[in-house]
Amino acid sequence: MTDQRAVTDDRGVKLSTAPRTRTLIDLLKYKTTSKLVKLWVPYWLAVGAAAVWLAGGPLELVLGAAWGVLVYSLVEYLMHRFLYHWEPENTFIRFITADVGRHHMRHHREPSDYKAAINAVQTPVILLCSGLALLVFIMPEGLKAAWLASCVAGSMNYIAQELIHFGTHHMPMNNRVLNIVKRHHMLHHYRSEDANFGLFWTFWDRLLGTSYEQVAKKAKTSAAKEPSTETR
After folding, report:
1. Nearest C-alpha neighbor of 132 from the set 58, 91, 173, 72
2. Which of these, 149, 151, 156, lies nearest to 51 by C-alpha position?
3. What is the DSSP string of 96-115?
4. How far is 195 from 91, CA to CA, in rounded Å?
5. Taking CA atoms, which of 88, 144, 162, 165 is between 20 and 30 Å from 112?
6. What is the pLDDT of residues 116-138, one digit of tens each?
7. How many angstroms separate the CA atoms of 189 and 194, rounded?
8. CA 122 centroid distance within chain
9. In angstroms, what is the C-alpha Rg of the chain?
């Protein structure tokens, strides 16, 4: 039976009618998921092993991992807010940004497209993360393990976000927490592209004033202040 359930906004209006019939097995069998595993698992094993080798204790690794997740979540939020919705015409700019704006906005135009739910262009991302990991050679000795742990945790956060993003568009996600994530993202797609830039780290939206509720309230206040154009 096709699952046509959809999350609703605060007025009870449906945000999407796209079927969400995919399962965890579908996600694991998806060829892009296999690509992620082949690319990222060796990176995590190598960089993670180096972090453990250099660590003076588990606290270094935990603090480094927490820092990596925090920084990545902010960078992802800022990129989504200021870069992903930008579609430059200049060829050079498109090249240096890996054309992420066009890829992302294509996803906005076709949000139910199965192939667009996970970023298939992974090479620039893993090259960037590899370059960041190599900075360990110029790090002070006491920061090396934490730095490598942050690289592993941040990139794991990135891949987790890719997989959960797939779920928000193509899986039921009936779990209470996952449903909150799905609703947050559907509001971004179907109510306001100027709101809800975070996926599952939604606190950045609330902290920086871009949650759907905050944006809608600002728009309502702004509309109320505008002089009426109606003729008497």
Report:
1. 72
2. 149
3. HTTTHHHHHHHHHHSTT-GG
4. 28
5. 88
6. 888 888 888 999 999 999 999 99
7. 9
8. 14
9. 20
